[in-house]
């Protein structure tokens, strides 16, 4: 049975890198039926929803999705770009990718950062780490208040540390909650250890800040300590997120699998990505129990849209992650090997690598390098 893949190119260069990924998926002999879905700015402007319901339905009927990139703009600007019939209706732009993670409970965000030999952008050549970012809770759960409802205020005021805010009224305070659950902590830590075990990784490092954020980070670290006992063969380490930022710059080769909550994972995965070439190389899998969405972590790059200039490697590596999720381990490895070969040869290079080749030339070179 061929796999059913939903393809969501989105905006700007999203369309171009999806085209590039398709060339490689075809060449590697991946058997699938593809159905394209609507997502992005165009649908926000025309329909007031960048993630239309029909797209959600399409995803419900797919085994996995490939997602290109989308444009997003701050609240006021977004409102202005709506067609007149949709203006002043209180429509609020919300990031489709964050919504997809919530709707489909894609709790594990997996972000490999590997230095391919010959990449002039590598910070060091021996980096090979994978960030596991919790993807549905924490600061991204969307439980925020402004102004603060009076009932909530009453409860909060019972906390001794609220004393310093006592002279401020509810319009002078905003609150974004950071909700962690035992279930959420357990499943992301477990996913990181399982990955480490199945991929012969040496260590798992939990990256949090329990010395200050005692309850949430504390819960996650406690769960991690427990789970680590089930994997005696894997070294378990703990780091505070601020120190981790320094160590990733100092000796990134020391780290292997990192696991963190949503916001901290967002930040350390950007830092890690830049160590191995940045946006052109950073791929990401948003993985749930039986569905997953794969994306490059770059945006839609409006200034490059239509130019076929950007590096498609991030999207191509994201497709490789999809193949792994679908049990096509050999095909995944074939793509990664081909990427490695093209980067090492230094013949075909997009602008970020100092070359002049186009997105599709890069994709074709990678396709040709597949044995
Ligand atoms: C990412 C991005 C997203 C996030 C944005 C686009 C909402 O930064 O995937 O890392 O914050 O998760
Ligand atoms: Mg990010």
Any chance you could write out the topology, listing elements then pairs?
Layout: E1 3-10, H1 13-27, E2 32-36, H2 41-47, H3 53-60, E3 64-69, H4 75-80, H5 96-103, E4 108-114, E5 128-134, E6 144-145, H6 150-156, E7 175-176, H7 182-198, E8 203-208, H8 216-228, E9 235-240, H9 241-250, E10 257-260, H10 262-275, E11 283-287, E12 292-296, H11 313-325, H12 329-345, H13 359-368
Parallel strand pairs: 1-2, 1-3, 3-12, 5-10, 8-9, 8-10
Antiparallel strand pairs: 4-5, 4-11, 6-7, 11-12
Helix pairs in contact: 1-11, 1-13, 7-8, 9-10, 11-12, 12-13
List of distinct ligands in this structure: 3-isopropylmalic acid, magnesium ion
Distance between the termini: 24 Å
Series of H and E elements:
EHEHHEHHEEEHEHEHEHEHEEHHH
As a percent range, the share of helical residues equals 25-40%
Average of pLDDT? 97
Please report the first level of CATH classification, the CATH class of the largest domain: Alpha Beta
- The total of helices stands at 13
- Which regions are unreliable across 5 or more consecutive residues at pLDDT < 50? none
% residues in beta strands: 15-25%
Report Rg: 22 Å
The order of strands across the largest sheet is 2-1-3-12-11-4-5-10-8-9
**Number of domains as seen in the coordinates:** 3
Class based on secondary structure composition and strand pairing: alpha/beta
**How many strand units?**
12
Query: From the coordinates shown, what is the CATH architecture of the largest domain?
Result: 3-Layer(aba) Sandwich
